[in-house]
Amino acid sequence: MIDLHGYGPRLFEGALLTFEVAVLSVILALLLGLVTATAKLSRSRLLHAFATLYTTVIRGVPDLVLMLLLFYGGQIGINAFTDWLYDAFGIDIFININAFVAGTITIGIIFGAYMAETFRGAFLAVDEGQLEAARAYGMNSWKIFKRVHFPQMMRHALPGLGNNWMVLLKTTALVSIIGLADMVKIADEATKAEHAPFLFMLPVAVGYLAIASVSELFFKWLTKRYNVGFGET
Amino acid sequence: MKKTIHILSAVLACTTLLPQAASAREGENVRIAVDVPYTPFEYRTADGKLTGFEIELGDALCAEAKLKCSWVEQSWDGIIPGLLARKYDAILSSMSITPEREKQVLFSEPYYLTPSIWVARKDSAIDIDDKASLKGLTVGVQRGDIRDNYLSEFYADTLTIRRYATAEDVATDFEAGRLDLAMMDYPVALETLNFLSPDSPYQQVGPGIREPERIFGKGAAVAFRKRDKELAEKFNQALETVKQDGTYDRLMKKYFDYDIKI
Amino acid sequence: MSVEQLLQTIAGYLNGNDIFTVNTLGMYWDGFVNTVQLVFISLLIGLALAVPLAIGRGSPLKLVSKSIWLYTYIFRGTPLLIQLYLAYYGFAFVPGIQDSWLWFFVQDPLYPALFAFTLNTAAYTTEIFHGAIKSTAKGEIEAARAFGMSKAMMMRRIILPSAFRRALPAYGNEVIFMLHASAIASVVTIMDLTGAAYYVYSRFYAPFPAFIFVAFIYMALSFSIQGFFRHLEKRLLVHLKPNNR
What is the pTM of this model? Predict the structure, then answer.
């Protein structure tokens, strides 16, 4: 076994944290993506404009800049709000934007924009006839969404979602820059203390490849599930 | 109105963020921020315990002022914004009193003053007073501290300035040989580069630097939010006592074999 | 108007503004130059590497195609930040490197960053081109064969040009991705755009002006790149369109 100079357990904890940040932010991204895609497809001009502004800004600005902005600026913004609450209503609360919160929210917001594009394309790709058939069955619009539109959309969205997840996973490395002790941060600390970069960085690289490979298998399985009845002739 | 308040606070609680007390009041916990590691002022022992000159001094001050204190770790980059944003109530982390910072925070009386120094390799023939000969050399410094401000103002055209997140990062790249010079606070340079030991490859070049005071400040002090005048006053009184009753001198002797008292 | 006069006018506007002084704007400008330089050079070398790699990726020789696959798999599967750390610290602590000629490159943070960025973008670009080459229409190849073209000539005259065209949208995305990814250069002390913003932030404790300003610069750059590629796509489409007359 490789000698990690006692950093082994901390590296493992860091890996868990990386995974935690990734999973929480992908949940946020999926929700934001669905909402934004719906807004983009809606007839309301205002909603459409908001959604477009959101996805455009995210595509134009680097993830790290957004993260630094939210981490350092977010607290001031939130405080302006809670100060106002205190002045106006006497409510005394304090919301702490720590590195974990800032990192997870930023990654969620960034990938929400990419998810939105994926979902939008997938919603549009669903055969109109399917929806008409559902309507003819007398389903209400929620039922149509749940039973017909969503499952069929997912079939088209899955490759894009899988791709986004892989990119998101790698983006979590940025949280180390705002001081969160993920596996990159621990490896960086260890590198500086022991002057042995390959010893600590390579296991982390393998960790990422491992998570990516497992996710690939998971997405293969999902694709099979959602493709039932299609193209398996 | 009450209902609105309930709904609002429920919404805010739902953001999964922990609501905490807004600021320190009578008998409440005073949260003090510190940037770790900054040996020997603050660092962690092998078993993870937080210690150092400022940690012990802070604990002594709190005991003297009969305050309940706790330590919060915060990186240097965000330490003043964090105070203003009420993540904690005071900063006790080798922060020098400078006019620029005084615009943002309220300082206690200073409690130590040390010079900043240049460090170079022993085999290099650097003459720090001959500014022209420095042209093209590279210096490492911690981003956003007083030495960064000094270099940015007086050496931006002469030296290539590399800014690092922590003093430890400066030391790492200095040891890797990427830097010709490092500029650090004297005690920190002594601790991280150990340049006084005879077999150390490094040496101090030039005298210690304290001028201009506008940049290097009037010594390190505890920082508070501007409106927390009472808290600052309590710390000032405790500082006065601790400096006189020998507590300060005892701590200083424990960590330094030179005088940093002011 | 002379440069001096212009500077003075700008200085006049900036009077009374604590943060955006001539000094900090100069830093942002240097950051801009560094970012553009870093991204442009790594993209250029990355592109030059990617073309032969993409051809090799489809080679019938298993050893060649598999090893190129492994390279792209590793570089696309791990964060660029780790690749950057490895390039920056990995070489610096190799014993004896300080006395070798390599030290000139290792000592400066710019070259390790270029090294990491180039290998990274080359890996992504290889896969983009590989995909485009694979999807070349059978008819084009058959026609080329019917003309009696050699394999090399076919690659040069038929497959690559049409693959480039098909790869263009994806490559445009890769360029923007690289621009955004380059923001991490600031963690190894390079004063790029993000580094300048970070400095201004830590000097004045003003996160909003510092980072929002730089966000706008990145946005302007991103959309210029996007516009350029759209334009290119249009022109190349016309140029390479089969002649139907």
Answer: 0.85
